[in-house]
Each structure stands twice: as structure tokens, then as C-alpha cells.
Amino acid sequence: MKVRTRAIWQNTIRKYKVTPVKLFEPESLEDIVSIVKEAESKDLKVRAVGSGHSFSDVAVTEEYMVDLFRLIHLDHYNTGVRKEEFRNSKLVECQAGIRLREVNTQLDAMGLALINMGAVDHQKLAGVVSTGTHGTGRDYEAMQGFVQSMVLVSGGGKIYRIEKSNGITDPVKFNEPNIELIQDDDIFYSAVLSFGSMGIIYSLVLEVREAYYLRETKLLTNWEELKKIWLTGSIFTAGDEESAGQSPRGITFMINPYKLKNKKTGKEEFNCAVMRNYYSKKPIKWILKEATRNLVTYIFGNFPVTYWYSLFVYNYLPHRAPLLIRSTINGQNDKKFVHKSYKVLFQGFQFVKERAYSSEFAFDIHDKDLAISAIEKIMEFAKKMQEDAKLYHSSPITVRFVKRSKAFLATEYERDVAYIDVPFVQRTRGTETMLELCQQALFDHGGIPHWGKYNTILDGKPEFLEDIYPGLGKWKAALMKLDPARTFNNRFMERIGLT
Ligand SMILES: Cc1cc2nc3c(=O)[nH]c(=O)nc-3n(C[C@H](O)[C@H](O)[C@H](O)COP(=O)(O)OP(=O)(O)OC[C@H]3O[C@@H](n4cnc5c(N)ncnc54)[C@H](O)[C@@H]3O)c2cc1C
User: Which member of 215, 350, 424, 444 lies 3.0 to 4.6 Å from 280 by CB, making a disulfide possible if both were Cys?
Assistant: First the structure.
């Protein structure tokens, strides 16, 4: 195993930069056990990192850092140890360091696919599961929802295979040496979303499905119209001319926080787009225009030129920011894009997105009024900051939808949610100020912050955690069991009050 000293680690947005005491690159389960034991013998903390895509300090440690990028194997989950009722389930076991991009391509080669995913694919599997990374779709859980089993190296270097009470593995057939099988809902729903605080995940068994195609469409609209279809709920059920009565599978709203004159109608409006995806058949005939994302979008989204251009506009011609956001909304995608599921779910613009960061808050899906008021508060602040301080947003506000989760620390615990995301291009003037205002507006309206996005609103408010997360007591009990010495603690845990 390679161990690096004086290595510099930083997250993708370069907000957190540390030189951990040691940076380990384990190649086996035994390596991970030895790292944990060594840390404990020296009274040091350990934290696994994924790809550093979290905007918060959730992954950060100055002590022992573990990067599992060498552990990337993926295969069917051993049918020999499964309970009879799971014998034919589509289950794959992945080592924790594999990136979503490789998960997708390997599954595709096996005729399989992820049930859902977030907007990009550079994150590591254990990273997205551990923070509850989500995509969009009212009927689809966030990434932790697809996990059926996980191998975790916890305090004292103990190794557990952790599953739900009715877990997939038959305890009689279970035969992994030195690993204890735990089948217990309380432990499973705690450990599966615990941002590295209960140990180092070595592998995850995911439920997947047969490979499928999606069709994505875009509808341009304005905030008043969007509010109507959101409030009536028709957006969730209404299909389009090609959907043959099928409701959209996933929906994303993109909203300009600035009111601008519509060139066609002459009316002032907040321009918006609604992106929907539907299950689709494999096209009989591929039409280039439909099988690729908009070429201009592709070029601008994947090369540095857009980022530098955006930075120039936002910092030196800030009054043009609202217009740039309008173009982003209008031009982001094609009218129709049909492809393999993971290519459609991947929203592109990777280069720019990796230089942007956001705060994202979850709202109960039924609290549409609150979510809408929160967005209108952000619009109000946007106007005020534009007039008073010449500070601007640099991206559209987006809204996505996620199915309820049983994971105790999921923001969508036991309720379906609408997630409101407020991204800013990194290094644009005033971003911190704007993000603080947006966080306050979202929190004041009942939103709960995403763990992996920029969040400071819960600092020093441990009393809120009890209210927001009714399963917190069970989560803390699991933490006590798996990591009694708090070997996997970090500053994030203390800041939030989760220790
Ligand atoms: C461009 C971009 C787009 C994004 N899009 C979305 C989106 O669409 N939806 C969404 O919800 N989020 C999104 N995010 C946020 C991001 O997906 C999450 O924050 C995710 O956790 C990052 O994964 P990572 O592999 O980079 O993990 P890191 O950020 O490195 O780590 C995340 C957490 O996982 C823990 N961890 C990692 N590996 C292990 C392991 N082996 N064992 C135990 N713990 C581990 C770390 O300790 C840390 O607490 C986006 C971020 C970026 C930069």
C-alpha cells in the first residue's frame, strides 16, 4: 500500500486544502484494517475521502486520510450466499473507490444500469452514498436507497457486513472470514448515510436494473406559469406528445432569479425551463441531433473557455449576469435527447460545474408554498443585492425531486422532498455573502441543508438536529456501537454537533 506524507489534498472547488499527517492508498481490506489500527495506536483520527466533490468540509481531515481509488472492482453479488428470495435480484457488489463513471460503463457492459443518479459521475460510489447524493424523480431515492449491503471497517479495525433486518445474505450460508454479519435496520439505516463517521466503507452491494433508455425534453416557461403547474401538481403527471400517457420519470426546474424583458412578448418575467425525462425505447434510427446533447452546450460546458468567460462577465460586467443566466436556461439542452439512461442522467457541463458550488435545501414535497416563498425570497434578495451592492447570482436556481428515505440522517427522511439548489460560479465576487443570504432564506422557510453542499446554517444549533432528524437517537446509538472511540471524527462532525 502506498502511503504519502506531505501530500496536499483539496476538494474540487479548492475551498478546503489540507496536508494530512498521512494519505493512505489501500489496496485491500487488510490494508484498511491496518490503517485504522495504526491510527488508534497513535491516537489519531481517520477519514475516508471520495473524489472531494463535496462543497462542505464533510470529508476533510488533517490526520489520517484514506483514498480508496485503487479499490474499484465490480461484479455480481455472490449468489451462493444470498437468501432464496434474492437469488434472482439484480445485485452488484462494488469496491468503494470506484467512480460512478466506471460503475455506469461496467454495468452497461453487463446489460445493467443504475436506477438513478445525480447530475455528474466523477464522484466515488462510497462518497455519493455517504452524503445522500440525489438525482431527480419523485419515485426514486437518493443513492443510499439502492444499497442492500455494505462492508465497513469500524472502530478497533472490526469488519462488519451490514444489512437491513431482512437483508439479502443468508446468515447460514454467510462465510466471509473475520467479518461479522449485522442484519439490523437501526444499524443499517444509520451507517448507510454517515459521511465516513462510522468507519471506512470497503464495498457496497447495489440494487441495479436492466439497462434502459431515457428521453429528455425541455420546456421553456416563466416563473408565474411554472408556479401554476407546480402548485396544481400537473407537472408530475402530464406527459407530452411522445410520452403516450406516461408521466415524466424525473423533473428539474431551472429558474432565473432576475426579472428580464421577454424579447417576444415584451413582458417582464423570471425565465425558467422545465427538464423532464421519460422512459424510452432504443431509437430504431439514430438521429444525430437527438442522440447528442446540443453541440454548443457540450463545447462550452466542457472546456475552460466558458468558465473564464463567465468569471470575466460576473466580475467585470456584472450587470450582464442576469442575461447570461437567461442564456444558460434557454440553451442548456436540446428539445429532445434520447440515449442510454446514464448518459441522459449525466447533465454535462462538468468543467464549469466543478468550478461552481452551491447550497441545497430539501423541502417536504407537500410544502410547495414554503418552497415557492423561499425561492421568491431569494429573488427579492437578488434584486436588493443587485441594486445595493452590485452583487449577482451566477447560475440559475434549480429544483429537483427525491423520494423518501429510511436513512436516519437523510434530509428526505420519511418524506418525499423538493430540493432547491442555489449554485454560484467559484471566484465570483460576493458569492459568500449571497450564499449566506440564500441559506438563511431557505432555512427560514423550513428547508434542511444537504450534507455535501455548502452548509454553515446548522453550526451551533444542535437543538435543531433533534427536530429535523427524529431518528438521530438511533443514529447516535449506532455510532456508539461502531465507533465508540470516535476514531472517524472530524471537524465537520463537531461543527454540526454530531459527535
Ligand atoms: C460538479 C458537482 C455536481 C454535483 N451534483 C450533485 C447532484 O446532482 N446531487 C447531489 O446530491 N449532490 C451533488 N454534488 C455533491 C456531491 O455529489 C456529494 O457531495 C458527494 O458526496 C461527493 O462524492 P465524493 O466521491 O467526491 O465524496 P467526498 O466529497 O470526497 O466525500 C463525501 C463523504 O463521503 C465519505 N466517504 C467517501 N468515501 C468513503 C468511504 N470509502 N468510506 C466511508 N466514507 C467515505 C467522506 O468521508 C465524506 O464524508 C455535486 C458535486 C459536484 C462537485
Answer: 215
> Which positions ≥6 away from 228 have C-beta within 8 Å?
none
Give the residue among 470, 331, 370, 368 at the shortest CA–CA distance from 138: 368
CATH 3.40.50.10490 fits 74-210+472-484, yes or no: no
CA of 128 to the centre of ligand 1 (A): 4
Kindly report, residue by residue over 179-199, the tens digit of the pLDDT.
999 999 999 999 999 999 999
Domain 2-67 falls under CATH 3.40.140.10: no
> What order of strands is seen across the sheet that includes strand 46-49?
2-4, 22-25, 64-67, 46-49
Nearest to 271 by CA among 225, 318, 320, 337: 225
Which of 23-32, 302-311, 475-484 shows the lowest per-residue confidence on average (mean pLDDT)? 302-311
- Going by the DSSP 8-state scheme, the letter that residue 314 receives in this structure is H
Three-class SS of residue 378?
helix
How many angstroms does the Cα of residue 231 sit away from the middle of ligand 1?
Answer: 32
The CATH architecture that domain 213-449 belongs to is: 3-Layer(aba) Sandwich (3.40)
| Domain span(s) for CATH 3.40.462 in the chain | 213-449
| Mean pLDDT of the residues in the chain | 93
- Of 407, 437, 401, 404, the C-alpha closest to 422 is 437
Claim: this prediction has a pTM higher than 0.90: yes
In degrees and rounded to multiples of 5, residue 17 shows phi and psi of -135, 125
The boundaries of every CATH 3.30.465.10 domain in the chain are 74-210+472-484
- Residue with cell string 462538468: 350
What is d(CA 445, CA 274) in angstroms, rounded to the nearest whole number? 23
DSSP 461-485: -HHHHHHH-TTHHHHHHHHHHH-TT
Give the separation between CA 220 and CA 205, rounded to whole angstroms.
39
Q: 61 and 456 in contact (C-beta within 8 Å)?
A: no
Q: How many Å lie between the centroid of ligand 1 and the Cα of residue 42?
A: 28
Q: Does any ligand 1 atom lie closer than 6 A to the CB of residue 354?
A: yes
Q: Which residues 6+ apart lie within 8 Å of 389 measured at CB?
A: 430, 433
CB-based burial, 381-399: b 16+ in 10 Å, e otherwise: bbeebbeeeebbbbbbbbb
Distance CA 337, CA 345 (A): 11
